[in-house]
Amino acid sequence: MTTPSIQRPTTTAFFVQSAISFGLSLVALMVGIVKLPVGAWERGFLGLGLIFVVSSAFTLAKCVRDRQEAEEVTNRVDKARIDKLLVEQDVFKPGQL
């Protein structure tokens, strides 16, 4: 009675495009930091900032994915409970209403 959720897998083309986009933007920013006419301390600060932003972006994406998966499991369990109650309920049985 439950309808399974259809999760379409990511296509290879989308995955490749995302990976290339991420790589290009990371390389472009690193080249920009290296070519910036500032001292080593400023360059180091910007480099550490870049590392922090990239790592926190990956962590945030993982947390969003984990929360979405947990909600999906919870929704499936709730739906299964409701379906079980509806199946067990016989509306034509006297005294049910």
Q: What would you note in describing this structure?
A:
- With 97 residues, this protein is mostly helical.
- 75% of the residues lie in helices and 0% in strands.
- It contains two helices and no strands.
- The protein has helices at residues 12-35, 40-88.
- Helix 1 (12-35) packs antiparallel against helix 2 (40-88).
- The longest helix has 49 residues, at 40-88.
- It is elongated.
- The two termini are 23 Å apart.
- The relative contact order is 0.09.
Count the DSSP helices. Answer: 2
Work out the helicity level.
over 70%
Runs with pLDDT <50, length 5+? none
Characterize the overall form. Answer: elongated
The computed structural class is mainly alpha
Question: What is the strand content?
Answer: under 5%
Largest sheet: none
- What pattern of helices and strands is seen along the backbone? HH
Gyration radius, rounded: 25 Å
Number of strands: 0
Average pLDDT works out at 84
Q: How far apart lie the N and C ends?
A: 23 Å
Topology:
Layout: H1 12-35, H2 40-88
Helix pairs in contact: 1-2
Descriptors:
97 residues; elongated; mainly alpha
Short characterization:
The chain is mainly alpha-helical and 97 residues long.
